[in-house]
Amino acid sequence: MAESDNKSANVLAQETAQLEEQLQGWREVILAGDRVLRWEKVWFPGALIGVTTLVFLLIYYLDPSVLTGLSCTVMLICLADYFVPTVALKVFGSNTWTTEQQQRFHEICNNLVRSERRVVGWWKRLCALKEEKPKVYFASVVSGLLAVAWIGQQVHNLFLTYLIVSFLLLLPGLNQHGVISKYTSMAKREINKLLKQKEKKTQ
Length: 203
Known about the structure:
Layout: H1 2-22, H2 27-37, H3 44-62, H4 66-92, H5 99-132, H6 134-154, H7 157-176, H8 179-202
Membrane topology: Multi-pass membrane protein
Domain RETREG1-3/ARL6IP-like N-terminal reticulon-homology: 27-184
GO biological process, one term: cotranslational protein targeting to membrane
């Protein structure tokens, strides 16, 4: 068991180091984005929502086709991948990088690797459920897709995408400031109260 844990930790450290190397040119930009997403200043959440709203209003106004939107998105990614490392090096310089910044950059890369592992783990569990309990897998997947299809039918696609993107952008800050844990604890307490009341009624 200890050997397995050590091996997993070594693999995690290796994958984190590889990701750090791949994102080396983006490290200053990533740290700046991390500060915004964690709401280090009180006006950051408003700025996030404002910029997101502006982008989606622009998309709504232009109303591009799927192919045009996809092409523009990929083009912007390619331009950013080409220009950002060069511009970041000129703006921030290489001598201003501190130990604290390197530590935070390492933590971000480590969290990204862990998140990727969680997604892969969920996918593997889903595949295992398909092999072991195909009826449960079929019912779960079909029910989930039907629910998503119904939501998509009731809410405008662009507005639904706007809500999802806004929530994902605000999620790190909500988690950092304890909002998620606060309401999760409240929900757990309410569920426990309901379960206890149900037990009393059955007795």
